Amino acid sequence: MVKFENLSFTYPDGTQALQEVSLDIPAGASVGIIGANGAGKSTLINHLNAFHLPQSGRVIVNGIESSKENAEKLRREVGLVFQNSEDQLFMPRVIDDVLFGPMNLGIDKDAAMRDAEQVMRELDIWSLRLKPPFNLSQGQKRFAAFATILAMKPSVIVVDEPTSDLDPRNRRKLIHLINSLKATCITVSHDLDFIWDTCGRVIVISAGKVAADGRTEEILRDRTLLESNGLELPIRLQCHLTG
Known about the structure:
4-stranded antiparallel beta sheet; alpha/beta; 10 strands; 6-stranded mixed beta sheet; Rossmann fold
């Protein structure tokens, strides 16, 4: 369970990024968070791993309340896949990056290696294990970044703009991956077709508030709602309406 209770957050320059946001996300759900640039989406998800701490209200993940003291516990529960994969890959070899998280959690090296191999084989990147991350393609970097998170076996996976720089084949592969996850998955994306294919529920954030929350097709078919929040219909619906 992920729970936001009346969460508010203001940056030092006075920008109010979140205003009394309240949300419940049940275990195992796949939820999309959408909104225009500057709506507060990134600020919201950065509260899940204690990158930001609540200034007002509460954030609770599987019974663990976000606080400075609980930051390490939260980061064991929540895995964040960054928008820029290169921010997540910093070791000399891909396998070193995938092992980094589990070993920092205190997992035995042999066990960590078994888990890393299993995850990398499932993502079809085991053959890349000895390569330097900077030599990988954008698609390979994306799946390597996912492997670094999946190897830690978090109960909540947060994905920020996962389809940026992906070709159609890797995009389809990523859709399959997201749909196969057993963990709670929260996806932030401007790619509303990807949200359509992977999320059962969509939350619209606007000016730091929840503007709408409902079933994916209901939200993403509502042209008036989307356009009033700086968004457009998914491409599949635009094509249908103009075809």
